[in-house]
Structures are given as structure tokens and as C-alpha cells.
Design a protein that fits this description.
With 374 residues, this protein is of the alpha/beta class. It is built from twelve helices and 13 strands. Helix 10 packs parallel to helix 12. The chain binds pyridoxal-5'-phosphate (PLP).
């Protein structure tokens, strides 16, 4: 049988995630992995989840296991609306922010439409944009065609770790208003700030045209697959209709758990502990890079989030270097995967949240050796 005949035209545009391919090759626990974007598992509130699930079943009974509203259960929408100071009508719950990205692309983009983004940008977003056959252009080379939306991660970006300044945000808003496009503000790391001062969200600067994507993955646990979109009512209305065909409703039991966790203040208490842990890990990572990396290697200094980005001297190819690093027992993600055009092959993304702090030094030392020996 020729199975190829059965696939849609979209399938040809699908892109495999190189990060997920790396995970298939190796057992993360057996190496020093700076590759994935996994939270530190010690931040997952296991004991609390145990008592929360009992509480949810007691409070909601069978309702917690039933289908729910497509917009999300009212209890969670209300808690989120209160936390972020928006009317509850402007909150749509999603089955994680990856779905938020995908549903925005599906609702706004026809094949050939332009999506603006930064370079580098989040790989999962590129996968989604490509699957809808969008034309991806970067902010520094936007071209003449009017974009549908601009996708950015303003706080502690994945992969660079960098944060957009207020001026950059205001410039983007001015451009969006001048050329009349939407802004998709992907914000899963915003609450993980370890130093510096918060910068206003794009949503607060341009609420009429911004879809702000939030996520429980990095502030609660990614296994729940829960996120939210804040945005203008008429845009959320179409997203709501689209989501009916995607998954009918976000996971109901998870939503009640998240509503209890966020609403009771337990999320903030847990977040404070996560921030302290990640701040120490970031600081450790920065000092280890300082100690071991050879001259000519530079890196970003993130004020939050889970990643920093290394630039090696010209001529280095981190895609080619990868197998050597893996044989030495250390993993990263090549930076070029995050560039829409695959350029910047001398860069790499390093995650500092996942690896146990006690194992970081050996990992950075190994990676520095691999770079030096090249
Ligand atoms: C920028 C960005 N957006 C979205 C996601 C997806 O997160 P979620 O678990 O909410 O789907 C990630 C995950 O790493 C991310 O880095």
C-alpha cells in the first residue's frame, strides 16, 4: 500500500522537533543534559497535589470528571481573571500554551500569510506556523506584505533568555498599530523572574490587538497541560469555536486542581520556592561558564526563565559538534534550530533548570572540553 497517498498537503510542511529527536536518542538521566526545557521536578508540589485531588473530588464530585465548558471551567477563569486584572470574558483556558499558539495560527493564518517573529524564536511555534504553511518573516526583515500577527516571547525568551525592553515593546506596539497586525505574546516564563524589574506586558500596552498566552507548565506542572489566553472578546469568540473541534474542552479535573492551587495562594508559595531554586541554578550556571568556557565563547545573562544562549566563535558548528558532546555525556540544543532560516550554527541553547545543581559543574566542564578540543 502507498500510505503516502493518504496524507493531506499540510503534512509535507510538518517539521519534526530536533529537541524531541534528541530525547529519543538518549536517556536524559544517564547524561548531563542541558538540552530540554524541563522544570526541576523538585518544584512539583507532590504532597499538595495529593491533598488537592482529594479536595477537588470532595468539593465537585462527579462534575470534576465530566465534560466541561469549552472556554474552561468558570472557577479557573475567575481565578485567572482576578490574578491578571481582566474581565472573565477575556479569559479562554487552553490545553497548554502550545495549543494557544496552534489555535491562534489556525484561526488567523491562511497558507502564504506572513507571521512575524524574532530570530531566534521558540521551536514549537515554528512547527505550528509551518504546519499551516505560513510565511515566516523576522522583525529585522519583515518584507512588504502585511503580517497577520507578530509572535514574540518578551520575557526570558526561549531560547535566548533575553527580555524585551519597554522601548522595544512600545516600538512593536507602534508598528502593529501602524501596519494593523495582531500580537501573540507567549509568556510561559514571565512569573519566573530572579533579578531586575518586571516590564509591562504587550497585552497591557495594546489590549485591543494582543493575545497573551499563559501556562501552568512552569509555575505548577507541565503534566497538567493547562494554559490560558487573555485577549479581546471578538478574537476569543473564534478561538472558542475552533477549540470546540480541537478538544471540546480543556481537562476538567486538572482545571479544578489549578483553580484551587492558584486561588488558595498555594501557587504563589510554591512559586517563591521555585524562584529561589532557579535563581541559585542560574547564578551557578553563569559562574561555571565563566570558570570553564574558553575565550571567544559568550552567553546571555537572563533575568529569569529556564535558558541561556551561547555564541561560539565563527566557524564552530554546534549541529556537527552535537554527537561528540553526546558521546562525552553532555547534551545541549543547537541554536540554529531556533532560527527560521537555520542560520547561526555557532550558537547553542542551554537549559539550567533541569539538571541537579550538584551535577552542573561536571556537565559544564565536559562541554567546555568538547568545545576546546574541537
Ligand atoms: C516559549 C514557549 N511557549 C510555549 C511552550 C509550551 O508550553 P506548554 O507546556 O504550556 O504547552 C514552551 C515550552 O517550553 C515555550 O518555551
Amino acid at each position: 500500500m502507498n500510505y503516502g497517498d493518504f496524507f493531506s498537503e499540510d503534512v509535507g510542511a510538518f517539521m519534526r522537533s530536533p529537541v524531541r529527536e534528541i530525547f529519543k536518542k538518549v536517556d536524559l538521566a544517564s547524561i548531563y543534559s542541558f538540552a530540554g526545557g524541563y522544570p526541576d521536578a523538585s518544584t512539583f508540589p507532590l504532597d499538595e497535589v495529593r491533598s488537592l485531588s482529594a479536595r477537588v473530588l470532595e468539593k465537585y464530585g462527579a462534575k470534576a470528571l465530566q465534560y466541561g465548558a469549552t472556554q474552561g471551567v468558570p472557577e479557573l477563569r475567575e481565578v485567572i481573571a482576578k490574578r491578571y486584572g481582566v474581565p472573565v470574558e477575556n479569559v479562554q483556558i487552553t490545553t497548554s500554551s502550545q495549543q494557544g499558539i496552534d489555535v491562534c495560527t489556525r484561526v488567523f493564518v491562511n497558507p502564504g500569510d506572513v507571521i512575524l517573529t524574532t530570530a531566534p524564536t521558540y521551536l514549537g511555534a515554528l512547527q505550528s506556523f509551518k504546519s499551516y504553511r505560513a510565511e515566516i518573516r523576522t522583525l529585522d526583515n519583515p518584507g512588504g506584505k502585511k503580517p497577520k500577527f507578530c509572535y514574540v516571547i518578551p520575557d526570558f525568551q526561549n531560547p535566548s533568555g533575553e527580555t524585551m525592553s519597554l522601548e522595544q515593546r512600545e516600538n512593536l506596539v507602534a508598528l502593529a498599530r501602524e501596519r494593523d497586525f495582531l500580537i501573540v505574546e507567549d509568556s510561559p516564563y514571565r512569573e519566573l523572574r530572579y533579578s531586575g524589574e518586571p516590564v509591562p506586558t504587550l497585552y497591557s500596552l495594546a489590549p485591543e490587538r494582543t493575545l497573551h498566552l499563559g501556562s501552568f507548565s512552569k509555575i505548577f506542572a507541565p503534566g497538567f497541560r493547562l494554559g490560558w489566553i487573555l485577549g479581546p472578546g471578538p478574537l476569543l469568540e473564534q478561538i472558542y469555536v475552533c477549540k470546540q473541534s480541537l478538544d471540546l474542552c480543556p481537562p476538567v479535573f486538572d482545571q479544578y486542581m489549578a483553580a484551587e492551587f492558584m486561588g488558595s495562594g498555594a501557587l504563589d508559595a510554591n512559586l517563591q520556592k521555585s524562584i529561589a531554586l532557579y535563581r541559585a541554578k542560574r547564578d551557578k550556571m553563569l559562574s561555571l561558564l565563566e570558570k570553564y568556557m574558553p575565550e571567544g565563547v559568550s552567553w546571555t545573562h537572563p533575568e529569569g526563565g529556564l535558558f541561556l544562549f551561547l555564541t561560539l566563535p565563527d566557524g564552530f558548528d554546534t549541529v556537527a559538534l552535537y554527537d561528540r558532546a553526546l558521546s562525552a555525556g553532555v547534551a545541549y540544543v543547537a541554536g540554529s534550530f531556533f532560527y527560521p532560516d537555520g542560520s547561526h550554527r555557532n550558537t547553542m541553547r542551554m537549559n539550567f533548570s533541569f539538571l541537579d545543581a550538584s551535577r552542573m559543574e561536571a556537565g559544564v566542564q565536559l562541554l567546555a572540553e568538547v568545545i576546546k578540543n574541537h
